[in-house]
Amino acid sequence: MTFTLFLNDRIDEARQRGIEWARSCAALSISAESREYLESEAKAMAGRLPTTMFDTVANPHDKLRADEHGKHLEDLDNAEMALANGVATARQRQEERAKLGPETEAPKASTWLTAGGTTLFAAGFALGIYDWIHDRITDPYIAAVIALIPSAALGIFVVRSLTNPDSPRKRTLGMIAGIGISLATGILRYAFSPDDLIVAIALTLLELFIVFFLDWHGKHLQAKYQQWEVERAARKKADHLVTDASQNNAATSQVIANLKQKIAEHVDSIALRSLICQKYSEIEAALINAIMAGAHKGIADNQGLKRGVMTNTAVLS
After folding, report:
1. pTM of the entire structure?
2. Tens of pLDDT along 124-147?
3. Is the predicted pLDDT of residue 24 greater than 70, yes or no?
4. Separation between Cα atoms, residue 164 and residue 178, nearest integer Å
5. Chain-centroid distance, C-alpha 125
6. Helix extents (H) in 137-196
7. Distance from C-alpha of 128 to C-alpha of 80, rounded to nearest angstrom
């Protein structure tokens, strides 16, 4: 707070006290005793102001404030150094994050591979069981639909299992299961159509080759997915480090702002005390004039109220 604002606040306070005095005693004039009382009130207000210079030797309280000020200066130096290091760290982490590149989508099996493998599996199994179903259901369309439903389910199951990028690292059991499914479907074809042994063997071999191909492609896709997971984890860690550095820098900046405010307030308070000591007599005279002016204002309001010119509300406002 500047000296001018400080003095204006004290003058306003003294003036308000003069008005309140006049209202409280319904004064219509100022007697010698009243003037003496008001002047003593103004002097008492001035007497409550700090009337000594800032002295760390003679005043223990000033010594404590000076020590606290020194601690604030030391803390400010440390905080500014920490902020400088934090800014450098944040910049380095941002550069490291930029090197990792933007987020990418997880690798997955292509549409043509999924659709093609499913179709081949479904077609092979449907051809093997169609005649057996048609012998029991004469309508060829209904027989074809019934044959396609389990065939499509089998194709989707095998293809999705072998090309799932998030599959277990050890794929041996999965490969054995895929081969077992192909052999089992081959046996079912032979059981349904024992006269078409060559067809059953051919379709079984076709499915086995499809299984090997899908497993080969699935291994490649799995490796890419695992690499993608490693890169995604690195990006997440880098993002966290960047965010953490930014938050730490923001907190340090707030600490610096608070310390600077406390340091400025200490310097301003010393300067204010110095001016108060130098101009104490002027301040005292200003407060006396203000309280007397307030008293005259209150008396004028009382006189107006008595004459009926003003209302009680106007006087109390």
Report:
1. 0.61
2. 777 667 666 767 787 888 878 887
3. yes
4. 13
5. 56
6. 140-162, 172-192
7. 79
